[in-house]
Amino acid sequence: LHTPMFFFLLNLAVLDLGSISTTVPKAMANSLWGTRDISYTGCAAQLFLFVFLFSEEISILTIMSYDRYVAICKPLHYGTLLGSRACVHMAAAAWASGFLNALLHTANTFSLPLCQGNALDQFFCEIPQILKLSCSQSSHREMWILVVSASLSFGCCVFIVVSYVEIFRAVLRMPSQQGRHKAFSACRPHLAVVSLFFSTGLFAYLKPPSISSPSLNLVVSVLYSVVPPAVNPLIYSLRNQELKDAL
Asked: Per the database record, which ranges form the G-protein coupled receptors family 1 profile domain (predicted)?
């Protein structure tokens, strides 16, 4: 449990727990009490935590792809490149960057004047829905910040893809079938989590307006905000034979 992979899995587990706790309890409480209200402060806190955890998850998944790359492509240097100090530094940098990103977005979003009422077309507070309520002239600054964040996320995605291209090239050169199977099985959970996380997020934010509808938007929101953190523990747990037998 003290290996780098499990250290980063611990970070991912904390993120998943935080993501679920940020959106689902409030939505469930509103559903049970027959209300759709959230306080201004509560909305700001929810947006901050959601952006913080979302940004952090992208960073941790990127670091985990580097972990898999070093483990398979540079196994003799694994202890040097991913020592305990290096792992702590990378995790701390990921948490700090996520915090600063969330602080910037939250402060900027909630500094905008709202001209379109205060009803969000969403079951939790997120930036695009709040920007719809703001005065169009004042939302350009936040749109530029969103573009920068999207570019950084795209850079992380490219890094992950390049890492896996190198991993697959190294695995296919392995002479032993057992070695190839072991390497693929080590990468499969992370690859599944990354695919689920990015595919649901990209579909939610890049889907064509022509297919948009309130019911579809709700389903898509649940897909990218609730399903990945709920499914991630199951994906990684299925590597455990005892859990497989129990299921």
From this structure: 1-236
